[in-house]
Amino acid sequence: MTSAALPGRDTSSHARVLDPVAPTTVGLEKPAFLGDRPRSPRLSSAVRASVPLALGLLWWLSTRPGSGSSGVIASPVDVWNAVIELHQTGQLSAFLRASLGRAALGVTLGVTAGISLGVASGLSALGEELVDPTMQMLRAVPFLAMVPLYISWFGIDERFKILLIATATAFSMYAYTYLGVRSVDRKIIEAARGFGLHRWGLLFGVILPSALPSLLMALRVCLAISVIGLIAAEQVGTSEGIGYLVLLAKQYYRQDYMLLCILLYAGLGLVFDVFIRTLERYAMPWRPVRGRR
Fold first, then answer.
1. Of 40, 118, 150, 276, whose CB count within 10 A is highest?
2. Is the CATH code 1.10.3720.10 the one for domain 74-283?
3. What's the rounded Cα separation, in Å, for the pair 43 and 49?
4. Does the structure show a pLDDT above 90 at 84?
């Protein structure tokens, strides 16, 4: 038996309460955005360039004639004149090509060795027992301590320089690769095996892509360490390269050359950072864009 509605009484709200299917639109508000809103590319570039530009302005102001630091440190104008001088003689481009070539070859060898040993150590217990103790011991040895031994073993030619950079980068690449491989979820590996992936297909299709964030972080660290190895390698038996320019600056007390070398090394760091960011963008497109409004 159903009860009749009272005359003059609005039963629409009562019906909406009883009927869960009835749409309710009264009082709804759009929820606040909970994610990260990416900055515009122009704003992001301006923010990134603000601190270096501020430091450059401070450098220029502190080296103006009449300031307290005018005779202590070379001014931006002096450094720019040094750039023009080296460019006119062709030495600047030759030095940059020599340093970049050594760094590229050394990093390639070091990264290849680090990834190979890290994968071998991270995938199997036997590999870990054979590789990891030795790598952990050698990783604690500063690579600069190997310079005298490398000179006695390989001489002071290009082979010494490339192998020193490779040694400097291999251990960091190994540590991050080992950590990345060991951190892969075992459930993902078992699921991939269920779909028929084994050995090389499992390695290149599941394990290395899952460890990709650790590998890219390792590459970022290795490129930074390669600059230190490059400085140490080019201090011995070389006649071209940024390190040789440092020796000239020290020998002839050229502050403009010394500051130019510092800026060149900083420029290499910037190029490496842009390279890693671009690689991350294409290798891991699922990652959210950094930055917020």
1. 118
2. yes
3. 10
4. yes
